Amino acid sequence: MRTWVCTALLIGVLSGCATLPPPNHRNFVACPIVRDTSTVPCWLAEYEGETYFLTIQTDVSAPVTPPWLGHRVLVEGVVSDEPRICGGV
Questions:
Q1: Is residue 44 included in any domain, yes or no?
Q2: What are the distances in angstroms from CA 54 to CA 15, 42, 50?
């Protein structure tokens, strides 16, 4: 009986800790899309009807490595009110 009460209390405490993320947070897996622009290619991903900007592709000295075509990417981020980049938020 004591074990059951402790387990029920622990479940109650832990379930109160699990909250939903804010509505502007995104995390999803998608296939990357490359969009050719006049200067450098842009990498994008689509999720639930929206296009998300991932990165731009420069040269090998860039601090960011672009995704590989044919491989899915894990996207985690926060949607901001900034202007769209390459058509993505």
A1: yes
A2: 33, 8, 13
Number of domains in the chain: 1
- CA dihedral (64, 67, 77, 52) in degrees, to 10, reads 120
Digits of tens for pLDDT over the chain (89 positions)?
566 555 555 565 555 566 788 999 999 999 999 999 888 899 999 999 999 999 988 877 778 888 888 899 999 999 999 999 999 99
Domain contains 3: no
Residue 40 CA to residue 11 CA, distance in Å, equals 51
Structure tokens at 73: 């990417």
Alpha-carbon dihedral of residues 82, 84, 86, 89, nearest 10 degrees? Answer: 90
Among 39, 46, 40, 43, which residue's Cα sits nearest to residue 67? 43
Distance, in Å, from the CA atom of 18 to the CA atom of 84, rounded to the nearest integer, reads 32
